[in-house]
Amino acid sequence: MALRIGDDAPNFQVETTEGKIDFHEWLGDSWGVLYSHPADYTPVCTTELGRTAQLGDEFASRNTKVLAVSVDDLESHQGWIKDINETQNCEVNFPIIADPDRVVATAYDMIHPNASATATVRSVFFIGPDKKIKASITYPASTGRNFAEILRVIDSLQLTANFSVATPADWVQGQDVVITPAVKDEEIPGKFPKGHTVIKPYLRMTPQPDK
């Protein structure tokens, strides 16, 4: 059954390129991104894992841990990492799960039989410190992920978890945000001292409150 926003993120104990981990224990109080790869030594995945490594400081600054999963074994992963580091000018320093029995892929519904009976789709799960699914994005195997969007989603999730706001279309860090309908007009000055703009009674904008 597909995981939905608000569901508990299934826990698992697995072997990874960084040793054996218990997912929930490894995540601790951090946010997490769990994402899948159809197989080792595939071209698009090579660029994605390289990009993840290049963005290590960006994820760390957001208190976010990244965990990749591929259905191949550890020996294959280790050889592939050498290729990734060489071709993408990076140093892969985050865990890649060995999932030859499809335990994680199945728990997170990463295999879509109408696309492929064996290969995972490109799923991305955003997981909060409370171990619940906060968002997910699924691409076909042929489409590489947009990591600017992945970072943008993390920024939005973290902001909206702490303030009564939502982020509008194409929002990025530093731009104005939407005041949620649950906030009454008379509450706005106390909650948003930077001021606000009423475009319509249901569309009220305010500067990003944590900037």
How would you portray this structure in words?
The structure is a single chain. With 211 residues, the chain is of the alpha+beta class. The protein has two domains: 7-146, 3-Layer(aba) Sandwich (Glutaredoxin), CATH 3.40.30; 163-206, Antioxidant, Horf6, Chain A, domain2 (Antioxidant, Horf6, Chain A, domain 2, 2-Layer Sandwich). The protein is 30% helix and 24% strand. It is built from seven helices and eleven strands. It has helices spanning 23-27, 43-54, 56-61, 74-88, 103-107, 147-162, 188-191; strands at 13-16, 19-22, 31-37, 64-70, 96-98, 122-127, 133-139, 165-166, 177-179, 197-200, 203-206. The chain has a five-stranded mixed beta sheet with strand order 5-4-3-6-7. Helix 2 crosses helix 4 (74-88). The radius of gyration is 19 Å and the shape is elongated. 27% of the residues are buried.
Summarize the structure.
One of its GO terms (molecular function) is peroxiredoxin activity. By secondary structure, this protein is an alpha+beta fold.
Number of helical segments with 4 or more residues: 7
Radius of gyration: 19 Å
The termini sit apart by 39 Å
Number of strands: 11
Mean pLDDT: 93
Strand order of the largest sheet: 5-4-3-6-7
Query: Per CATH, what is the topology of the largest domain?
Result: Glutaredoxin
Helix content: 25-40%
Low-confidence stretches: none
Helix/strand/pairing class, anyone?
alpha+beta
Ordered list of secondary-structure elements with their pairings:
Layout: E1 13-16, E2 19-22, H1 23-27, E3 31-37, H2 43-54, H3 56-61, E4 64-70, H4 74-88, E5 96-98, H5 103-107, E6 122-127, E7 133-139, H6 147-162, E8 165-166, E9 177-179, H7 188-191, E10 197-200, E11 203-206
Parallel strand pairs: 3-4, 4-5
Antiparallel strand pairs: 1-2, 3-6, 6-7, 8-9, 9-11, 10-11
